[in-house]
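Why do we care about 3D structure at all? Because function follows from shape, and shape follows, mostly, from sequence. That is the central idea of this module. The next example makes it concrete: a single protein chain, its amino acid sequence, and then its structure expressed as tokens.
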Amino acid sequence: MTVLKPIYALATLSLVFLASCGSKEEAPAAANMIKTYQVLEVEPRSTTIQVDYPATIEGTENVEIRPKVDGFVDKILVDEGQFVKKGQLLFTISAPQYEQLVRTAKASVKSAEAAVSTAKLQVQKTKSLVEKSIVNKYELQEADLILQTRIAELAQAEANLVNANVNFGYTKIASPVNGVIGSITFKTGSLVSGSTVKPLTTVSNITDIYAYFSMNEKQLLEFIRNTKGADFNQKVAHFPAVSLMLSDGSLYPEKGKIGSVNGLINPQTGTARIRATFSNKLNLLRSGGSAQVLIPQEISNGFLIPQRAISDIQGKKFAFIVGKGGVIRSVLVEMMEATSGHFYIVTKGVKAGDLVVLEGVQFLKDGMKVKTTKADPKEIYAELNQ
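And the structure:
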């Protein structure tokens, strides 16, 4: 037994030695597994951003051209897309009944005029007889009443003629405004009436155009608060000039002006409708088109965080901040509705000097230890100066 004890002691020392060697080898390996992440040191910045809103384009006047009388389309004197002037003839309606009513009304006027002339002669004749005491004065009064009746009948006939001419005039349809012809719904020979659902066409005045877009309640409050003015009317007057991005991604050369803000928030959508006006000198825009309204917004001392540094968990936004010893923690952040390119404008959750992790945020967890390398702010924010 005494011989075995040194053997057991030697074996124990060997195991301890091997264990200590293994822990020393594993320690550097664990240290090497700590990953390096690029971080951005947060600092307040002032910039101008372009906030974009989807918009629909409409002419300042969109007039539906409808028939007021029953008849057949006789002539179409314009084509789709054609520019027309106010008063220019567009369509003629074949409606012989209205022409006949004019003729009948004219005949009635002539008959009534003759009746008036006859009544006047009768008054003159009766008056002469009364003066000679051949008839009494009551017959003169009767003749005078008949004259007044005939004059009233003439007035009625003339009124009927005016109405007949008006209805006949409706067989010729002219443009009420300067503008561009839209789709022509009916062809020559089509039966139309005043109760026809579809219009013959639409004339759009696009000398100037309206771009309609919507802001939600939060965006509208931010926009109004950041605009100078003692009251709402003054704020509208001080709204900045806006730009228009067309459907092909090009920027419209003319600047626009916000002219009105709907006084009601739509309860279904939670948005207010806003109208911007643009000149259409180049005749480039068409009613019914789509575009994006770009509104410049001044950001003073804001925290602009790249979007790739923000994670979304169940509708909430989080960023990862590197603390002492390289330990990270997630922070809930709040931001403006507007964005600036690929940047969020963070209003709460970060402060100047914080180190925000820029990449691989989907793999990070609270309490992890990381190595960091600082990103060059000039490179990160280069697009803001473009």
